[in-house]
Specification:
The complex is a heterodimer of chains A (114) and B (114).
Chain A lengths: L4 E3 L2 E4 L5 E6 L6 E7 L6 E7 L2 E5 L7 E4 L6 E5 L8 E8 L8 E2 L3 E5 L1
Parallel strand pairs in A: 2-11
Antiparallel strand pairs in A: 1-3, 3-8, 4-5, 4-9, 5-6, 7-8, 9-10, 9-11
Chain B lengths: L2 E4 L3 E5 L4 E3 L1 E4 L5 E7 L5 E7 L5 E3 L5 E5 L4 E6 L8 E8 L8 E2 L3 E6 L1
Parallel strand pairs in B: 2-12
Antiparallel strand pairs in B: 1-4, 3-9, 5-6, 5-10, 7-8, 8-9, 10-11, 10-12
Classes of the chains: A mainly beta (114), B mainly beta (114).
Chain lengths: 114, 114
Amino acid sequence: DTGVSQNPRHKITKRGQNVTFRCDPISEHNRLYWYRQTLGQGPEFLTYFQNEAQLEKSRLLSDRFSAERPKGSFSTLEIQRTEQGDSAMYLCASTTTLRSYEQYFGPGTRLTVT
Amino acid sequence: AQSVTQLDSQVPVFEEAPVELRCNYSSSVSVYLFWYVQYPNQGLQLLLKYLSGSTLVKGINGFEAEFNKSQTSFHLRKPSVHISDTAEYFCAVSDTNSGYALNFGKGTSLLVTP
């Protein structure tokens, strides 16, 4: 069990560019969640997957955001036409259906939009 | 809809003193309750959780919390803190209606000084 991993750990981009983050969950975890944490705030739910199906999306997930989990393993979160307000820590968590209340978090990807 | 309120944004305390971090929640359905800790530049680590049963739950690193349904509270306590407990602490709730997506408070910064 190597834990949840996220890449890259840090990303600096210019406003208007597209960025993509990757999350590798703990093996055999079929549920995967994305959260966003801005400075001084608690994490906010963005979306989650069960296997490859995206089951829920928060209203925070504007149409510039898209998430995928094509084979039910790793997931990607893409932000198109980044804005300065997108600067945040993007956290991924994974779990199993039977124990969905117990989520294991990755270290996060810190995005800075200049 | 759920909401979580962490009543203190910062709690300074001396080493070996007791500490209580306060959390209140609101929800129209039964919830699961959690405390997470976040060390600088790291992801979230689960300290403890309340699912059902005994209202006093014990977690890692000597922390415990008590679920009080009538007061809708889930306060975190530790009888004697260490310097290494300095971190950000988040209270969170989830329920089955939201796919167990976590709804976090804004966090409490615990600063332990010698």
